[in-house]
Structures are given as C-alpha cells and as structure tokens.
Amino acid sequence: MTANTPAAGRGALAGIRVIDFGQMVSAPYCAKLFSDYGADVIKVEPREGDAARSAGPFPGDLPHPEKSGLYFINNTNKRGVTCDVGSAEGRDLLLRLLQQTDVLIENNLPQRMRAWALDYATLAATNPDLVVISITPFGQSGPYSGWNGYDLNAFHLSGASSRYCGRPNETPLEHGTFAADYFGAVTAAAWGLAAVYGREQAGGGQQIDVSCAEAIAATFVGGQNIGCYAQEGRFDKRTGVGMPLGAPATILPCRDGHVWMLALEPGQWNGLRKVMGDPEWASLEMFQDMYSRAQNADVIYSFIREWTMEHGKMEIMEKCQAAGCPVTAVFTIAEAAEQPHLKARDYFVDMEHPQLGRLKNLGAPFKLPASPGGPTRPAPLLGQHNADVYGELLGLSAADVRQLARRGIL
Amino acid sequence: MANSLPLKGIRVVNFGWVWAGPVVGQTLGFLGAEVLKVESAARVDMTRNLPPFADGIPGPNRSLSNHACWAGNGSVSLNLKEPEALQLACRLIAASDVVVENFGPGVMERLGLGYERLREVKPDIILFSMPAAGLYGPLEHVRTYGLSLTSITGLDSLVGYKGGDPVPVENAFSDPYAGIFGAFAVLTALNHRRNTGQGQHVDFSQQEAVMQMVGPAYMDYVLNGRIGGPKSNAHPTAVTAPYAVFPCAGDDRWISIAVYTEDEWQGLIAAMGSPAWAAEFATQSARLTNIDPLHERIAAWTCAFDDRELAARLQEHGVAASPVLNVGDLLDDPHFRARGTFVEVTHPLGFRETIYGAYVKTSRSHPEIHPGPIIGQDNERVFKQILGVSAAEYERLTREKIIY
C-alpha cells in the first residue's frame, strides 16, 4: 500500500473502491464525499484533464491546470490517473479497473458514454456488482435525456427559480453557485451509497440515474407545490420577498450589509420590538400579527429598515437572538470564512498542495466521532498516481506505464 | 431476490419534524428502510396543518404538501411527556438501527433520549442529529428558519441581480438538501458499524453541509481574497459566456443558455442566423470582457421566440438550453411525465393526491411510494408485533393517551 492509499479501517467508508470518471462539480463532489469519508477513490481524467482544471478560480486569475480552486476543493483525498478512453487500449484499461471497483461515479452526457461504448449494459456485463452512479442535468431517460446541458440548464428546468427566486417579471435566478450540481451530487451520494451498502440485499450492482433537474423539481419545488397545483390548478411564483404571507421575513439592508429579518410568532415580534427600543409605530393594531404585517409590508419594512440602517449586522443578530428572535446576519463570503463558530468546530482545515502551497479548505461536511472524515490529502496532480494505480490494480510495470503515456493512452 | 430494496431490514426511528428531518427518513425509506416517525396528537407538527388540504377539507391528515414531503416515513404516536411513552420509545429504539432527530442541541437529553441513554438500550445505535449549526460551538443555539439558515453560510450573499442587494430565496433549499445529505451521513455511519460493530452520534450541522455549496466562491476568497456577490445567473467562476437566462415571448417566459465550448458558440451563432455582431465576440475573452452587451444582443434575439421551441431548436444546434419552467409547467412537462417524477396516489383516507415519486431512477430497485403517514398509522403493528405489547395493554395505553 502506498502513502497515498487511505489508512485501512480508519474512515467510515474504508473498504469501498470508487472510480470518479467525472468532471467539473457534480460527479467529482459526489466522489469527494466518498473519498473524504475513507473510500479509496481513483479519479480517471482525460489527457487534457477535468474541465474544472481550467475553470478557476486561480491565484491572481492566472490559469494553470494545477491551480484551479474548483478542482482543488472537489477532489481531495483521491488518487488521480489519466486515461484516453476514446482509444481501444484506454477503454480496456478503464474496464479492467472497473472489474475491481465497487462504484463508478460519472457525469458525462448519456450519448457521450454510449459513444465510448461505456453504456450501463456494457459496464454491468464487465462487473455485475458495479454500482454506476450517473449524474446528469436531465437523466438517462425521457425526451431531454439527449440534450446538451449544464448546471444552469438543470436548475432552471426544475421550477425552483420561477417559483422561489427573483423579483416578479424579472429574470428568475439561481443561487450564484452550482446549486443543481451540488444538489444532484448529494442526492447521488445518498442513493449510490445505499446501493453499495445494500448490494447483496438488492441482488447485485445497478445504475443510479440522477437528474439534477428532477431531484430539485421533486423534492424542493414539487413537495410544497405540486399537490396544490394538481388539485386546484393554481400555483405561485417568486415575489422577491422572503416570505410574502408573513412579515417581517425578508433580507433587509443594514449599516454594514444585510440581515435576514424574521419575526413571525408573537414572542419573536415582541423580542424585535424590544430590541428596536419599543418604537411607537410598532404598537399599531395593524402590526400585531404576522399576516396583517404582511398585508402592510411596504409600511412595516420601511419602518424596520430605518432602524436596521442605523445598526451593524452582528449587533442586530446578537441582540435579536438574545431576545428570542431568529434574525441572522447575511454573512459575506469573507465573514462566513472567518466566523469564530466554524473555527471553534474545526470546519476549516489547512492543506499543503504542491503547486498552491499551504492553504485553507472547507473541512468535513458532517462529524463522525468514531470514524472522522474530511480532506487530508490534496487533489491529485494530473496523472500523479498512474504508476501507483496501474501497477497496484492491473500489475503494469513502471516501464509499461511510461510506454502507455508516451503513446498518449495515459 | 429480484427488486429488493437495498436498505431492507434497517429500522429507523425518526424524531425529525417540519421538513429536513422527515426528508432524511424519506430518503432512507425510499431505499427500503422501515422508517417510523415518532409524533403525537398532543403536539401536532405545524406542517400537518399547512394548506391546501385534500378536497379542501382541513385536518392534520389532509395537508397535501405534508404528504409529499413526509412520504416514505411511517408513523407511531407517543406522547413523550408520559414516562410510559418514553419507555415504549426506548423499547422501539432497542429494536432499531438508527435514530434521527433535528431538534436543537440538548433537546433529546431533556426528553430523556440523549445518546448515552440510547446506548444503554442499544449499544451500537446510530444517533443522527442535525441541528442548525451543529451540536457545539458559539452559535450552537442560533435560531434560524430553514429559509434563512443559508445566510450564515455565505450562500445568500451570492444570490441576486448583478451589483444589487441579495435577493432572498423564498423557501428552504437547505431543508431537502440537508435531508438527503443527512441520509448519506447515516449510511456512512451504518457502513462504519458494519466494518467495526460500533455505533456513533453523528453531528450534522446543517450550516456546514450547506456551506459546501459555497466552495467555488470560498476558494476565490482563499486564493484571491475576493468577496463574491450577486451576479444574476453569470457563471459561478466567471470562465465562460454567454451563460444566462434570457427572455422569451409571452408572460414571464424565459430560457437558460449556457455556452462553454467553441462548438457550442458556433452552434449558437448558426441558430441565430449568423448575425454580423457575433464577430465582435469571436473569442471567449471578448465574450467575457463584454458580457453585458453580449447578453443584451442575445436577449434581443430570444425574446421573439417561444421558450420550448427555442430550446429544442438550440439543442438541435448542440447548444445547452432549457426552458425556465414554472410550477404549472412541471406536472405536464413531457420529460418529467416520462420519468414519473410526479405520481398520483390514493391516500388511506380515500382521496387521490399528487406527490413526487422516486426522484432517482434505480435500475434494480423500484421503491413503492405511499403518501406521508396518518398520525399513528403504524401503532398496532409496531407496538403489538414488534414490541409484543398485549392487546389489553395496547388498549389501555391508547385510552390513557400514552399512545397518542
């Protein structure tokens, strides 16, 4: 076992081998959830590398395939190999790796996998116990399964933006990150790990077909809207206000940024009134329950805004929280990254990367006291573990690997 | 055995309430686990009283949204203020693998169901706790709603129109996200138990799980000290354009278009009929430098077209595009219909309702989808068959509102 293989028995997923044959966010992040909790994850990249290597952010905005922040953050604890699966020899190497693998995680469009002759039927014939996790914008079946698509297209097909984000009649919005890819990734991780854990129970491997658009359309949008629409034929759209039916419940500006202003239940509202110094307007009849406050939203929000604009976000949060009112500061990225609470929980970890040097990373997304997880080894350099992996798993000699690399197979 | 669900044989006791906790149970339930929500008519979960109701008749077993969001969970009713009810809960836990809860830190201990107590009744129990900001730390008792939890992750600071204030997302994306993520965490703990025989108490901070989504912007801060902000639908790491949502013909109709590659750019130009202005944007760097004029040019073209027709036409040219669907579009969309995303089911009380089905397609395992439970629907089976409570004793416990 090389220095780069996970210490046996340590992580919760020790004993599971995964091949990450994905790019950008969804499949790599899903595979990172496996690697950060102890699975042996081998990332298989094309010769030009995962597209995330050219997606930045880069130090000083200078593109460099080994310095992409996106690649760095989503590929920790993995070993990395290269393989040109478009060549017969390369494809054969991948299939041989898959014979010794529990899980394949990939996010190529279905037509791409078919063109490589790596469709599920072929993979299942190669290794009937293999769990194949396929994460795509639209899924493996249905009229849009042949479409080209990215995170943006998946998110906006889900109904989430039209329903929940943006001002009326203005452009519907996504979250400013790869929201659909991340949602699809965690969905795939849960369903995929279940399929591995219960493989004997299920009777063998299978394909886990995740459509990022569908996962969001169902669980986020559908759950709270589709029953109403089916029964009553009516539906709602975005309003630009946090909660249109109750108030206050929205983001408001304050002296140094923004706060998420929330005071719905009577105890919360009374707490907010006290923190604001019991202003006279707050005792008006029309402000005594959350619904009538919402009916007078323009008035109440302008009153509250007058007060928030005179105070800082942390002061507002601390005083409101102490008064039983669930107001929070809208943290900037810097504030989120520097918050004492997350530091006290060791959420940020230091890593050493051969090209990026010493830098911070987000740590484990959840804490398993008996089998700690989280990133400890940096994302692999392109082809860094070719000799290791092809040697250990396929018995290739260093000379074989060099020769395959020279011929462009690796 | 054909079509066996992978988690068959796993029993989960779910104290989760509102949305995120029930979704943990739902995910495990769709995958074959037997999931029993513990609730009580003495304190009905507020989501059971969310309108609209089946056939317009209010009642805690008739909320349509509750039935969708809680599908996959069973229900036993126990009034945990009663010592006997607590004992029954402990007996049920002793016969289970996993306990799920999404209260604040310390609540389970006050109920008499803290991890140490659970370990006494079941040494290898997995307790999965998912408080807003984790089980310890300066913000451990922070009060948030699901829809505002994102504010303390940095995520909310990225949502909005370019250069403007943050725009709130009007529902808790974090709830189903953390709920499904939580099921993954439970499975890692189950795998560890299989490897070692050990249970554990999982500390799942919803804040930390959701903040993973902020990774790309976090890295820009780490590497460049840059503090991101709202930028409409522009690419999260600003490496490509056009990448936006554009207006289409009709009321509130839109299309998303994402171009990464040169082939896709050429496809878009061809679909637009090779306009002369495209020459000004011939390179990726020209497109990124002049992203606003580029997006304006494309918007001036898209606004004449039907969103679905245009998406299909762009796809024929190899361009990644999708119509921006509203809630009304989802149910009849041919793609979601073909995938059975939404299913009409018959509730045990006799009415028909539409909920979402298995939102992941698994080639070997096919979950059966039932609507979220009636309060206490599994009482008889659980207390009599699993715990061996006699018929007379069951009758007494019900009469005395211990099973309630």
From TrEMBL, chain A:
<keyword id="KW-0808">Transferase</keyword>
<dbReference type="InterPro" id="IPR023606">
    <property type="entry name" value="CoA-Trfase_III_dom_1_sf"/>
</dbReference>
<dbReference type="Pfam" id="PF02515">
    <property type="entry name" value="CoA_transf_3"/>
</dbReference>
<dbReference type="InterPro" id="IPR050483">
    <property type="entry name" value="CoA-transferase_III_domain"/>
</dbReference>
<dbReference type="InterPro" id="IPR044855">
    <property type="entry name" value="CoA-Trfase_III_dom3_sf"/>
</dbReference>
<dbReference type="InterPro" id="IPR003673">
    <property type="entry name" value="CoA-Trfase_fam_III"/>
</dbReference>
<protein>
    <recommendedName>
        <fullName>CoA transferase</fullName>
    </recommendedName>
</protein>
TrEMBL record, chain B:
<dbReference type="InterPro" id="IPR044855">
    <property type="entry name" value="CoA-Trfase_III_dom3_sf"/>
</dbReference>
<dbReference type="GO" id="GO:0016740">
    <property type="term" value="F:transferase activity"/>
</dbReference>
<dbReference type="InterPro" id="IPR003673">
    <property type="entry name" value="CoA-Trfase_fam_III"/>
</dbReference>
<dbReference type="Pfam" id="PF02515">
    <property type="entry name" value="CoA_transf_3"/>
</dbReference>
<protein>
    <submittedName>
        <fullName>CoA transferase</fullName>
    </submittedName>
</protein>
<dbReference type="InterPro" id="IPR050483">
    <property type="entry name" value="CoA-transferase_III_domain"/>
</dbReference>
<dbReference type="InterPro" id="IPR023606">
    <property type="entry name" value="CoA-Trfase_III_dom_1_sf"/>
</dbReference>
<keyword id="KW-0808">Transferase</keyword>
